[in-house]
């Protein structure tokens, strides 16, 4: 379980994340939604100890992320941020192989090799293994980064906007993949999403952030409603039930 | 450029061939110079005492120094490029070399009788401070264009150089300074270059930490995610870069651009997975410096063109073409 209490981040005079307390259930997909500047990405980065909290604590399976060694955490929790600009020139295979770094420190074992092959296969990257990242399209690169995180094989996997750069087919494929990882392998997936309908269709739990604060949380059925979405984003929504999912319509 | 489908085994074979070719080049460089030394005379045992003296006191140390300095500077450049995450950075575009040079001047002014090893350590300390300052500036001032990063480094280097020149001028040390600001191996003799073996030891240390540097090159967030202590790796990298640079500046002077040319070419051909590429970086650096020095000895014989000037010409052309290439790709 991921628990955080009183988590706060202040940049200058703006409080980006303001005293947020919540528990994320173990297993399943938890989505964090909310308007731009709501503090979603900052919260996710603080959970993954990429940004230190100014106040408050984050516990992952009872381990305080600020005090636990990086090595121990890297075998329990992984994160992929958005906009991963990489100057190091690596092949897809090498990048994914570095997902095993917390276990093997660069000396790849047969077990690691199996993980690498599986991760490449899941994301349909088998043919691209020898290509350099800078020779790929944005979507292929995004899939390579996700493959690296899968290869890290942690109980908790955090993604900031994993659907960035993906076309519709790959976006759906990615959400299904995360759903499978949660269901079949008991992983806990936390994603920051912009598309409320993906959050609606694939999440077990949704957290809504607004102005740096935790605004609401609950099941998709409780959150994806026109009133709550209108309050969250400040524009009109119409929510309809389609094929057992709640779909928000906001295009016009 | 190497084909990408090449297998690891082939790559190892290729490396052995390259290593042999480099050895041949190194041996050839032993016989280039004003004083005549004949390969065949040496083989047939008809060598005279003078030949052996020149060989042992000057030629062999010089060739060894060229190889050590070239390999060291190329590896230092690779590490700097990964840590700063910028392809244009190397010790001479990041204030490292200028800081080492200021350190040398400080030693010359305050404690001229220090042994070479101590001189090197003082220069290394200055280089460390200068490079840390450069990385600190980069962290505080986010630069939108990658081209601006070396400009900041060159400006920082310029400011440090101005200080050095000021003091050198005031204390009438301009000429002495000239000796180490332009890289030149003609004064390398036995007993005056051994500090460079330390550069080799550091290069070897870099190889053992190769995977760490590669992960650090993926950025701070990726490193943290993979459980790597990013700050420790940066500190280790800075230490290696400063010591290597200082040992080269102390023995031969400034060797510009090797750390720029070699890492970029190797990266283009085979990427940045240092565990595979670092031996190539070291070897290519050694070859480039050996070649430049040997050519410098030949084209204007019996006079010499310092290797620093040769590298400056080749390196600046390479640097400009890199900048232009980057711009045309961005446009």
TrEMBL record, chain A:
SUPFAM superfamilies: P-loop containing nucleoside triphosphate hydrolases. Residues 2-236 form the ABC transporter domain. SMART domains: AAA (SM00382). It is a peripheral membrane protein. Pfam families: ABC_tran. Keywords: ATP-binding, Cell membrane, Ion transport, Iron, Iron transport, Membrane, Nucleotide-binding, Transport. The keyword Phosphoprotein does not apply. InterPro entries: AAA+_ATPase, ABC_transporter-like_ATP-bd, ABC_transporter-like_CS, P-loop_NTPase, Siderophore_ABC-ATPase. Transmembrane segments: none annotated. It is found in: Cell membrane. The keyword Kinase does not apply. One of its GO terms (molecular function) is ATP binding. Belongs to the ABC transporter superfamily. This is Iron complex transport system ATP-binding protein. It comes from Pseudorhizobium tarimense.
């Amino acid at each position: 379980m991921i628990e955080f209490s009183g988590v706060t981040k202040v940049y200058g005079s703006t409080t980006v994340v303001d005293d947020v307390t919540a528990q994320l259930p173990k297993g399943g997909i938890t989505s964090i939604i909310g308007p731009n500047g709501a503090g979603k990405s900052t919260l996710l980065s603080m959970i993954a100890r990429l940004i230190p909290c100014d106040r408050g604590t984050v516990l992952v399976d009872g381990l305080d992320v600020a005090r636990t060694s990086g090595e121990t955490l890297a075998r329990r929790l992984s994160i992929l941020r958005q906009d991963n600009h990489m100057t190091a020139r690596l092949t897809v295979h090498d990048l994914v192989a570095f997902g095993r770094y917390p276990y093997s420190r660069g000396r790849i074992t047969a077990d690691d090799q199996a993980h690498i092959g599986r991760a490449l296969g899941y994301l349909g990257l088998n043919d691209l293994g020898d290509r350099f990242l800078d020779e790929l399209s944005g979507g292929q690169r995004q899939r390579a980064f996700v493959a690296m995180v899968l290869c890290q094989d942690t109980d908790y996997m955090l993604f900031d906007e994993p659907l960035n750069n993906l076309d519709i087919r790959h976006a759906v494929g990615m959400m299904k993949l995360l759903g499978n990882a949660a269901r079949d392998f008991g992983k806990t997936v936390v994603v920051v999403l912009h598309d409320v309908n993906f959050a609606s269709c694939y999440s077990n739990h949704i957290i809504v952030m607004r102005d740096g604060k935790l605004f609401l949380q609950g099941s998709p059925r409780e959150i994806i409603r026109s009133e709550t979405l209108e309050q969250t984003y400040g524009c009109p929504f119409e929510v309809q039930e389609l094929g057992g999912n709640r779909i928000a319509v906001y295009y016009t | 450029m190497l084909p990408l489908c090449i297998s690891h085994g082939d790559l190892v074979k290729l490396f052995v061939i390259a290593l042999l070719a480099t050895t041949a080049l190194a041996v050839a460089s032993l016989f280039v110079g004003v004083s005549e030394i004949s390969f065949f005379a040496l083989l047939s045992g008809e060598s005279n005492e003078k030949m052996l003296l020149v060989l042992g006191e000057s030629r062999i140390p010089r060739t060894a120094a060229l190889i050590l300095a070239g390999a060291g500077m190329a590896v230092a450049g690779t590490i700097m490029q990964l840590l700063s995450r910028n392809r244009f950075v190397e010790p001479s575009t990041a204030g490292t070399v200028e800081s080492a040079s200021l350190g040398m001047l400080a030693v010359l002014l305050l404690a001229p009788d220090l042994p070479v090893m101590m001189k090197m350590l003082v220069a290394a300390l200055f280089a460390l401070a200068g490079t840390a300052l450069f990385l600190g500036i980069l962290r505080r001032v986010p630069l939108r264009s990658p081209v601006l990063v070396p400009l900041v480094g060159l400006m920082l280097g310029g400011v440090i150089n101005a200080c050095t020149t000021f003091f050198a001028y005031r204390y009438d040390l301009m000429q002495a300074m000239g000796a180490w600001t332009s890289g030149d191996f003609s004064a390398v003799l036995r007993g005056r270059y051994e500090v460079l073996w330390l550069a080799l030891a550091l290069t070897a240390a870099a190889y053992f930490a190769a995977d760490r540097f590669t992960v650090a090159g993926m950025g701070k967030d990726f490193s943290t995610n993979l459980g790597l202590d990013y700050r420790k790796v940066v500190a280790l990298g800075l230490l290696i870069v400063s010591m290597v640079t200082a040992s080269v500046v102390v023995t031969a002077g400034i060797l510009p651009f090797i750390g720029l040319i070699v890492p970029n070419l190797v990266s283009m051909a085979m990427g940045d997975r240092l565990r595979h590429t670092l031996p190539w970086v070291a070897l290519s650096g050694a070859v480039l410096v050996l070649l430049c020095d040997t050519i410098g000895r030949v084209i204007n014989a019996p006079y010499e063109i310092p290797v620093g000037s040769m590298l400056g010409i080749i390196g600046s052309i390479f640097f400009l073409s890199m900048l232009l290439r980057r711009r045309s790709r961005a446009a």
